[in-house]
Amino acid sequence: MCLQAATVGGESTGTDQCVGAGFAPQYDPVDRVATWIIRGILQERTRYNVRLFAPKDAQDPNGVRAFDGAPLEKEFTFAFTTGNGKPPFELPRVFGFCDVKRLCPLPDGACDGPMPGAVTSSPYEFLTHSCTSGGRCHGAGSDTRGPSGSTLRLDDDGAGGGIVAAVRHLVDHAVVASETATGADPTAPSRNALAPFGRNMPYIDANDPGNSFLLYKLILAMAPRCPFDPNEESATHDASACAPGGGSARWTYAQDFYDCRSVAEAGVARDPLGNCPSDGGFPPLPKIGSKGDLIAPLLEPRVPADAWQPPARGEYDRLRMRIRGSGMPEGGMVSRTEALAISAWIADGARVESCP
């Protein structure tokens, strides 16, 4: 791509004035957004033309291509004008391995109750409760495989280090998944711009979710959006996911949930049994969610709800041709909240720090 300062109505066809020419994009397959990080400061009150190039031929490593190799049909250009205030930077998508207590029920255990099981608090929370931690998602015997084996199992690094060490092993050694297209050396990750999508794909490519096998396995198990639209392309086209008690039930509040911090800030004492007071006569707390409501995402998607568009027809079928095997976890569905969290975690470097 090319970013060029230009006068209104003017447009350069060369690339000598490109700002940040040559920087690599990052692709988020959950939001289906390609991001180019601008290295530098743009001028105030200036029009910029953005040019997305199409590959010149089949051997051109530059230009925009779809994950299946289809090239951008022709160059696409749009423009924007900078202001003179502080830019509305996107909030940092820092997402580590810490479990975070965010929600609590009333009246019993309002101050110290655990998060409801339906809420994924971190990649660690998801990975430790999925088939990656010893389940049989990939057939009999899969629970005996290690992180460098033919299945995705993260509960051990082969040396008794547990899930944290297993993740670090996969990241540090760029361990290649076996359920992808393979090249000349199936054990070496492929980073060639002309390599077909999915070839020698690492399980987890730190800082590049678009090249992480783990994320596509989650995407292939993602539930449809609710309310269910039969005409909308989705990975798991199952209307029952949105029905009461269906697959989406675990993504809804089982009861009303409130902001715990308000209890402590209000200085309210517990009852003789140590419980927080009930609603009767108690100052109203900010309600985080009502029973039956969809649980709010742990982080917002890059695409606003009113600008979201469904995937193109056949996109998931084309993806399945590149990523073999079933989606993860097998036999269940992955919520968009969980996929967003894993994507943000990978983009943040797939850190596996010890958390208090």
In DSSP terms (H or I, runs of 4 or more residues), the helix count works out at 6
Number of strands: 8
Order of helices and strands: EEEEEEHHHEHEHH
Largest sheet: 3 strands, antiparallel
Total of domains: 2
* Mean pLDDT across every amino acid position: 75
In what order do the strands lie side by side in the largest sheet?
1-4-5
Description:
It is globular, with a radius of gyration of 23 Å. It has helices at residues 123-127, 162-172, 213-219, 261-266, 315-322, 336-347; strands spanning 2-6, 25-28, 33-36, 47-52, 76-81, 104-105, 257-258, 287-289. The chain has two domains: 1-87, no CATH class; 95-356, no CATH class. The protein has a three-stranded antiparallel β-sheet with strand order 1-4-5, with no helix packed on it. The protein has 356 residues and is mostly loops.
Can you give me a brief rundown of this structure?
The chain contains 6 helices and 8 strands. It is mostly loops and 356 residues long. The chain folds into 2 domains: 1-87, no CATH class; 95-356, no CATH class.
Features:
single chain, 356 residues, little secondary structure, 2 domains, 3-stranded antiparallel sheet, 9% strand
How are the secondary structure elements laid out?
Blueprint lengths: L1 E5 L18 E4 L4 E4 L10 E6 L23 E6 L22 E2 L17 H5 L34 H11 L40 H7 L37 E2 L2 H6 L20 E3 L25 H8 L13 H12 L9
Antiparallel strand pairs: 1-4, 2-3, 4-5, 6-7, 7-8
